[in-house]
Write a structure and sequence with these properties.
The chain is of the alpha+beta class and 192 residues long. Helix content is 36%, strand content 12%. It has 7 helices and 6 strands; from the N terminus they run αααββααββααββ.
Length: 192
Amino acid sequence: MNIHEHAKNSFSKNQLMLKLGIPSNGAGIKRLNKLIQEERVDISHFRRIAWNKAYLKVEKDCPVCNRKFYTLLGSPRAKTVCSKSCSNTMFRSDENHPNWTIGKGSYRERCWRIWGNKCAIPGCEWDLTVEAHHIDGNRNNNVKTNLISLCPNHHSLLRLDDENKKWIEEIIKQLVEEKFSLPVTQGEGRLS
C-alpha cells in the first residue's frame, strides 16, 4: 500500500503516521507533512479537531493576578491559577495553607500572646528561644489553658522522671490557676 491508499483509510495525521510506521512525535509530524506536500496527498477528509478530546479548553481569569489563561474544563489537571508563582501565593499562605489554624497564626503565637515571648517560670530571664508547651501532653489540644511558654531548659525538665519534673509541674499548675482562675487537675503523671 502506498501513502495515498493509507491516507484514504485514515482520519487523522496521527493515524496515518501509525500506518506508515512514522514515530508520533515532532520530527515525525514534520516528516509526514513533507511527504503529504511532496506526494500531493488528499487529506481533506481528515478531522481538523482531535476526536478524542475529552475536555473543553476555556479561558479563565487568574484569581491572584487577574491575567487570562487557558485550562481544560472539568479535567482533573485543570488549572486554578495561571502560574507557579500565583499558585504559591494562593495555596501556600494564609487561610489557604493546609496547616492554617483558625484565628491569627499558630498555637505558638496564641501561647506567646498569653504568656509573652519569654519563659513563664518566675525568675527565668531566658528570652532568646521560647517553646510552647502543651500542659496535658496532647499536642492537638491547643486551648489557651493547655499552653504555656517555656525556655528550652525548663521544657527539657518535663521530659525527666525525677524531682525536677514534679517541681516544674507544680509551678506550671500554680501559674495556670493564677492566670485563668481555674483549678488544673493532675492525672497520669501529667497536668491535665
